[in-house]
Structures are given as C-alpha cells and as structure tokens.
Amino acid sequence: MFTILVVFVFFLLGLAVYCMVTKKNIIKTLIGLEIFTSSVNLNFVVMGATEGGVDALGQSFAIISIAIGASVAAVALALIINVYRHYGNVDWDIVRRLKW
Amino acid sequence: MVSPVLTPLILLFASALAVPLVSRLGTYMKFPKIRDIFSFAALLLSLYMISSLLPSVPLSYQVNVFGGPYGVELYVSTLSVYIGIIALVMLSLVSFYSIKYMEVDNGLDSYYTLLLTFAAGIVGVVFSGDFFTLYVFWELLSISSYSLVSFRKYRWQAVEGGIKYLFMGTVGSLIALYGISLLYGVAGTLNFSALSSVISTTSLGSNMSLYIIIATIFVGFGVSSAIVPFHTWIPDAYVGAPNCVASLSTVALIISAFSIIRSLMAVFSPFSFDYGLFFIFFGILSLTLGNFMAIMQRDVRRLLAFSSVSNMGYIFTGVGIGSYALFQFGTQGVYIFEIAMVGVFLHMLNHVFGKGLLFMAVGNFSQSTKSYLLDKLEGIGRRMPITGLAASIGLLGLAGIPPLSGFWSKLFFISAAGSKLSDPVLDVTLVFLVFNSIFDAAYYIWVFQRIAFKPVTEKSQNAKEVSYVMWLPILILAALLIIVTVRLDYFTSFIDAALRSLFKGA
C-alpha cells in the first residue's frame, strides 16, 4: 500500500508539472499549482504512516500546509483578477510586456 | 512568563494586527501618520529585543505538544541573531523611508500590516529549529513579499512582476516541501539536531538518495534567492515593486540563502556529504551571468536586480568553497571553511546594506526626475548632493574599492579559493572569482561615474534634494557601511566565533 501511494504521489506530481508547463491560461496554471500542493500534502500523510498507526507530525504538517496553500491561492487569484483588468486576458503569452 | 525567544515574534504579530486599529485612531485624531510611526516603533522595539538576546545565546524554545524531538522548536544561535539584526535594521529604515515615499498611495494599512508580517516571517525563519517552523514562517514571508511587490496594483508592471514572482516562488517552496516530506519519511523527524544525529549515526549517511533531498532543498530555496537558472522573476519583480519594497527584497534574498546554509549544514554535515561542487557550480553560473546581464541594462532597477543575482552568486560560491574544502580535506580544510564562511556572512551584510541603500537612492532620484533610465539620470549626483554622496558610497562599497567593506568580503572569497593551489576545482573557482570581481568593480564604477561626474541632462537639470525623511535612512546606511569597514576586525572575529553554531548537534 505504501509503495502504491508513493507512486501515486509521484504520478500526481508529474501531472501537476505537465499542467503547469503546457497550459497557457494562468488559471489553469494555478490549478496545476494546487495539484502540486495537494500531492505534496498527500506525501506528508503517506510518510507519516507507520505500522501501528499514524505519526501526528505528518498529519499536522499537512493541515498547516493546506491552510498555507489556500492563502497562496487567494493571493494568486487576486493577482489574476488584476491581470485581467490590465491586459483584458489571462494568458501567459500576453503577460510578458516587461522587457529591458 | 513568556520566553525571550517568543517576545519579538509576539510583538510583531500583535502590532501587525493592531495597525488597522491604530489607523482608525489616526483618522479620529486627524493625524494618519501615527500608523507609520507605530510600525516604525514596533520594528525598532523588536530590533532591540533581538539584539538583547545576544548575550544569552544559544537559546531554545520547544512547543512540547508531541514531546521529544517532534515538537516545534525555535532555536536562537549567534548567527541567527546576526542575520536578524541586519534584516530588522534594514526593515526599520525602510519603514521610516516609507513614511514619505508611500505617501501617495492608498491602502497603507495593508502596506504596514504586510511589512510587519514580513518582519515576523524573517524572525521566525532565522529562529527556526526544525523544518516545520522554517516552512511555515518561510511561507508567511513569501506571501507578504508577493503582496508587497504587487502593492501598486494600478500599474501593470507591478501586477506582472508580482504574478511571475508568485508562481516561481511558490513552485520553489513546493519543491523544497516535497524534499522535506521525503526527509521526514526517511528519518521520521524534522528537527535539525535530531535529523543530524539520525543521519550521522545510522547507515543512512552513505545513502545516495539523500542527495535528491539536498537537491530539492537547494532548488526550492534557490528559486527565492535568485540563483541563475531560476532568476527570471527578479528583474520583473523589482521593476514592478515600489523602490522601498525592492530594498526589502534584498533582505528576502539573504534570508533564503541563510535558510539553505542553516538547514543543509545542520542536517547534512559537509564532512560527509559532497554538495560543495553543486554550490560552486551554480554560484559561479549566477556570478558570471548576472554580471553579463547587468551591463546590458538601461533601467537602473534591472541593473541592480542583475547585480543582486551576481551578489547571490558570490554568497553561494563562498558556501560551496567552504563545504567543498571540508569534504575534500577533512579537518585540514577547516581554515578554508572559516575564511570562506566569514566572507559569506560579511557579504550578506554588504549586500543588504549596499543594495538596499541603492534602491532607496534610486527611489529618491526617480522622485524628482520621474525616470529610471540610466541615460536620463546622468549627473544627478550634483543636483541631489546628499543622496548622491550616499549612493556613491553604496556603489563603491559594492564595487569593492579597497577601504570599503565590499572589498574585504570579496578578498575573503578569493583567499579561500586560493589557499589550496594544488586543487583544480578551487583553481577554476579562483579564476572566475578574480575575473568577476574586476568585472563588477568596472560596471559599478561606470554607473558611479555617470551619476556623479557626467554633465547634467535636461531631466536631471531641475532635480531637487528630497525631504529629510527620504535621505536620512540612506545616510544612516552609508554610515553603517563605513562603520563596518572601520570595525572590520570586530565583525570578522564575531562571525568566526559564531560559525560553530552552524553545526548544532553534529
């Protein structure tokens, strides 16, 4: 079971990286970021599992990390709204005016 | 009785919460600046609290919820007090500077709240004794920093710089978090001293897979310290941010470098893990590329951003030389390690004070000329003598002109790399270091020459010296740089004595 979960986390990480690298839409990139956060949290819970039960540290780290992920997502969404106001679009191809 | 370790943190969090209330009081009293003065006072008080910890280090505070080595630990070493003092001096000066500089903006309640949570994040990161605390406070620092960078959200530059910074920084910290979770799975704990004893006593010490964990932690925090393959956010974020926030970001850079040094050296002893080459490679890469990119810029803020990349390159190369020497030569390499690490911590001080000074000076220049282009700012030093004088000291200090302290930290790196000439890796590092220190001295002096000696352009013709609120912090920073130069022996012996606290539990 442990191996299956570790492999599953790895699969999720790959999915998140694929999503973040290939998608041009900023919101889709944010979804990729959220998948990344969830897979790392899952990894903490998996690593905390022992023979006789679960370790409290991994669980509490996962909970704190979920809260942190939520606040990052909130800041990111607020910025995306502002991107839409300035550029009229949420696409990484357009959000690259800063040069030299 | 509250532990003295907790008091600065509690003070900063409490004052961050109190800022909106104080602001209401200010509107009631028709004196809105009371909020600015309140934040400045809170930062000064926490600076005093941290420096008063210095006689009683090492201090430790454990939250014994889970008992034993599992609990959340705050650990104060001499070096964390040192870095904390540097960071809080810079933050208080920036807070003083913002009284005038941020006057034009709305929503300053959230600005000062974010400034104070940023300070709390810094104090938490430098005091952390385990990865749990480190990560939580690191994210507090980062989230405040993303919001501060895009604070002027009516400018598209701020939004674009902020969103790039947010995505890169968050991916970086998630990579580090994945490494931390693997480390937790391997060792079953996250406390630095418990981890180091687990790793050095069991057979894990020879495990190659631990290098994957080292790499994830290095890459994760390396994104935020802008080493080269991950540096693309830094010029955009600095162009977007208000200038006082850009000076804050120099603090965030050294804090992330410090957390890499602190966590890796405490957990993976450099005597048995060979990550020095890794550091040297990325350090030299950012050193050289940062310098080459910097001379091509026309915007002063982008130039300073790329020179930050090259300064972080110096710091990483220094750490690399130190840990490489310890791994290769064992106890014979200790003196190389000491020279290199004294250089690293001295350079952190020079980088924060010098670059923070320059960003504030650029803020003053742009306040009176409304321009950031280097061509337009020529000769402005003569129209704004005080800012020009302080900026010249900052530029010459970072250039490494002999009496100033920037020269000594570069000399420490060069002499550390040159102290074992029989070793090919250190020889190559030496060549790159000498080449780059000449190269960056050249372009800093070039900028200095254009600001101070060139004939005035029509943009800088009518520039007037700004209010004392904006030149006083810069002058204080310039004075600090000179004081460091004069009392260099004190600083080097202080850092040298503090270095053993890096290997807590080893």
What's the helix and strand layout?
The complex is a heterodimer of chains A (100) and B (506).
Chain A lengths: L1 H21 L3 H23 E2 L2 E2 L1 H32 L13
Antiparallel strand pairs in A: 1-2
Chain B lengths: L5 H24 L4 H18 L7 E5 L8 E5 L1 H24 L6 H20 L3 H19 L6 H32 L4 H10 L8 H15 L8 H8 L2 H25 L8 H20 L4 H30 L4 H36 L10 H4 L1 H15 L5 H13 L6 H29 L5 H4 L6 H19 L1 H11 L8
Antiparallel strand pairs in B: 1-2
Summarize the amount of helix of chain B as a percent range: over 70%
Q: How many DSSP H or I helices of chain A?
A: 3
Strand content of chain B: under 5%
Ranges of chain B where pLDDT stays below 50 over 5 or more residues in a row are: none
Distance between the termini of chain A: 52 Å
Tell me about this structure.
The complex is a heterodimer of chains A (100) and B (506). The termini of chain A are far apart. In chain A, 76% of the residues lie in helices and 4% in strands. Chain A has a two-stranded antiparallel ribbon. Chain A has one domain: Helix Hairpins, CATH 1.10.287.3510. The longest helix of chain A has 32 residues, at 56-87. Chain A is mainly alpha-helical and 100 residues long. The longest helix of chain B has 36 residues, at 334-369. Chain B starts with 5 loop residues before the first helix and ends in an 8-residue tail after the last helix. Chain B has a domain at 272-506. In chain B, α4 runs antiparallel to α5. The model of chain B has no long low-confidence stretch (mean pLDDT 87). Chain B has a two-stranded antiparallel ribbon. With 506 residues, chain B is mainly α. Chain B has helices spanning 6-29, 34-51, 78-101, 108-127, 131-149, 156-187, 192-201, 210-224, 233-240, 243-267, 276-295, 300-329, 334-369, 380-383, 385-399, 405-417, 424-452, 458-461, 468-486, 488-498, and strands at 59-63, 72-76. Chains A and B meet through α2 and α3 of A and α5, α6 and α9 of B.
